[in-house]
From TrEMBL:
Keywords carried by this UniProt record: Hydrolase, Signal
Species this chain originates from: Roridomyces roridus
InterPro entries registered for this protein in UniProt: GH
Designated name of the protein: Glycoside hydrolase family 39 protein
Isomerase among keywords: no
Span of the signal peptide: 1-17
GO molecular function: hydrolase activity
Length: 443
C-alpha cells in the first residue's frame, strides 16, 4: 500500500427511468455488461480523490462531507491563492502552512496526500512567465535556488512528520533527475510519483517517449506513474481504456517496471455531473487505477468545495448531485466488485458490486442521450435460477449544477423483469446528459 503522503514535483432536465424488457432493440454498441461470476476483489474507492478543494482552515467543511464522498486522495500545494506566492516570490513559509493544514486534513480522514512541489515553488499558473525562475534554467542554471528550496522542503517535511510516504513528478528532464536524486538521497525509501504530464501516454508524444528513455537511462524512474485526463470528451485517447494499455505497453518497450498508475486530474469541466462521474468511476475500478477529480473552480474557490462537489449558503455547506454519486459509491457499494464491460461506443459504462444479498450497479454515460442496455450475466453465480423474475429498484441521481443542492438519490420503485438463459437485460433510457442511475436487486 501507499504511504499517507505523496510528493508531486510539477512545473507547470430530469429524466425518468422506465424499465421494460426490450433487449431486442439494443445494438451491440449500446450494451454495458456485468458478469456476476467474475470477482474483482474489494472496492477501495479508487476514484474518490480530489485535486485541491480543501480549505486551509481545519474543519471548515464538516467531516460528514469527507466521509460521505469516501475521501481518499488529496493533491495540493497552494496554487492560485489570492496574492499568489511561493518560494520564488518569497512566500514559501505561509504557503507551507497551507500545505501542512491540507496534509493534516488528509491524515484526519486516512487519505493520501500528494504535495505539488511546483505550487510551493511558485509555478502555479499565476507566475509571470517572463520573470519567474524555473529550476535549472536561466538565473538558476546551476540549481542553487532549487537546491535551497529542496533543502528547506525536506527539512520541513521531516520536522512535521510528513515523510512517511512520498511520491513525485517533473517536466524538465534535467530537473527531474536532479530532484529525484536529491529526494532519494535525503528522503530514502519515499516513493516518487510522476511525470504528471497533462497529456495521456502516447508513442507519438515526445514528452512521454523522451521521459521514459531518460529515466530508464539514468535510473530515475518514478515508483508511481501519473498523468492527467482533461481533454475532449469525444477523444478516445482521453479515456483510461486507451491510456492504461498504452502505458503498460510503453513501459514494457522501455524496459521499465509496471508500477501503480494515478490520474491526478480527471473529468473535464463539462463532465462535472453525476452521469460522467459514474462513467469515470466505472473505468477507474475496471483498470485498478486511482483518480483525483479535476477542479474547475478558480481563485479562493479552488481551495474549497472538495473540487466542485459541494456548495454553500452563507457558511453552511451542502451537497450537489455529484457528491451524492460519490456517497453512494463509497458507502453503499460495498462487498466485492464483479467484472464489467462498457459499451463499445465507449459512452456508457457501469460499476457493479455484490453485497450481502444485494447487487448494486451504478451506471454512467459520458454526456450521451439515447437508449442503452444493461446486461447482467451468470445470475446462477449468486445461487439464483437461470431463468425467472427479478425485482429491480432504480435510484435516480439528479443534478441542478455545481451550486444546486441535491439530497439522496430518488428511489423510483421496483420493476419486475423476467429473464432466461442466466442473463437479465433491461434498458437504460438516457434522456439527458447529466442524470444517472443505480440499479439494485436482492438475491
Ligand atoms: C484489476 O484487479 C482485479 C482484482 O485483482 C483483477 O482481477 C483484474 O484483472 C484487474 N484488472 C486489470 C485491468 O488489471
Ligand atoms: C493581498 O495583498 C494586498 C496588498 O498587499 C493586501 O492588501 C491584501 O490583504 C492581500 N490579500 C490577502 C488575501 O492576503
Ligand atoms: C458467464 O456468462 C458467459 C456469457 O453468458 C458464459 O460464456 C460463461 O461461461 C459464464 N461463466 C460462468 C462461470 O458461468
Amino acid at each position: 500500500m501507499f504511504p499517507s503522503l505523496l510528493l508531486s514535483l510539477l512545473v507547470a432536465t430530469a429524466a425518468t427511468a422506465a424499465v421494460v424488457d426490450l433487449e431486442s432493440r439494443q445494438s451491440a454498441s449500446q450494451i454495458t455488461t456485468v458478469d456476476l461470476s467474475v470477482n474483482w476483489g474489494t472496492p477501495i474507492r479508487r476514484a474518490s480523490g480530489v485535486l485541491y478543494g480543501v480549505p486551509s482552515t481545519a474543519n471548515q467543511i464538516p467531516s460528514s462531507f469527507y466521509t460521505g464522498m469516501g475521501f481518499n486522495y488529496l493533491s495540493a500545494g497552494g496554487a492560485q491563492f489570492v496574492n499568489a506566492t511561493g518560494w520564488i516570490y518569497g512566500g514559501y513559509t505561509s504557503r507551507f502552512q497551507d500545505v501542512l493544514s491540507n496534509f493534516n486534513t488528509a491524515r484526519q480522514f486516512g487519505a493520501q496526500f500528494v504535495l505539488k512541489m511546483s505550487d510551493l515553488w511558485g509555478t502555479d499558473g499565476t507566475q509571470v512567465a517572463a520573470t519567474a525562475v524555473y529550476p535549472g534554467v536561466g538565473s538558476d542554471a546551476s540549481f542553487t535556488e532549487f537546491n535551497a528550496y529542496l533543502t528547506q522542503l525536506v527539512s520541513d517535511l521531516k520536522a512535521h512528520g510528513m515523510t512517511s510516504n512520498i511520491k513525485s513528478m517533473a517536466q524538465y528532464l534535467a530537473m527531474w533527475s536532479h530532484a529525484v536524486n536529491f529526494l532519494r538521497t535525503n528522503l530514502p525509501g519515499v516513493p516518487i510519483m510522476g511525470p504528471a504530464f497533462a497529456g495521456a501516454p502516447s508513442t507519438s508524444n515526445t514528452w512521454w517517449t523522451s521521459f521514459l528513455a531518460h529515466v530508464k537511462a539514468d535510473g530515475t524512474a518514478p515508483d508511481v506513474y501519473s498523468w492527467h485526463h482533461e481533454g475532449s470528451s469525444t477523444d478516445p485517447t482521453n479515456d483510461l481504456q486507451s491510456s492504461q494499455p498504452t502505458m503498460v505497453s510503453m513501459l514494457n518497450s522501455a524496459g521499465l517496471a509496471i508500477g501503480e498508475f494515478i490520474i491526478d486530474e480527471y473529468a473535464n469541466a463539462n463532465e462535472q455531473n453525476p452521469g460522467s462521474t459514474a462513467w469515470w468511476i466505472a473505468r477507474f475500478e475496471r483498470f485498478n487505477m486511482s483518480g483525483l477529480r479535476g477542479n474547475w473552480l478558480n481563485g479562493a474557490n479552488l481551495q474549497d468545495f472538495l473540487a466542485g462537489i459541494l456548495w454553500k449558503s452563507g457558511n453552511t455547506y451542502f451537497a450537489n448531485g455529484i457528491w451524492q454519486v460519490y456517497d453512494y459509491y463509497a458507502n453503499s457499494m460495498t462487498g466485492f466488485r464483479v467484472a464489467t464491460t462498457g459499451s463499445t461506443d465507449r459512452l456508457m459504462d457501469n460499476f457493479a458490486v455484490v453485497g450481502t444479498n444485494i447487487v448494486r450497479i451504478l451506471v454512467g454515460g459520458r454526456l450521451v442521450t439515447g437508449t442503452y442496455s444493461l446486461q447482467i450475466k451468470n445470475l446462477s453465480a449468486l445461487g439464483l435460477p437461470t431463468s425467472g423474475t427479478i425485482q429491480v429498484q432504480t435510484r435516480q441521481f439528479s443534478f441542478a449544477g455545481t451550486t444546486g443542492q441535491e439530497g439522496a438519490p430518488t428511489a423510483l420503485g421496483l420493476v419486475s423483469h423476467t429473464y432466461s438463459g442466466n442473463v437479465l437485460s433491461f434498458p437504460i433510457f438516457q434522456t439527458d446528459t447529466v442524470t444517472t442511475w443505480a440499479f439494485e436487486f436482492n438475491f
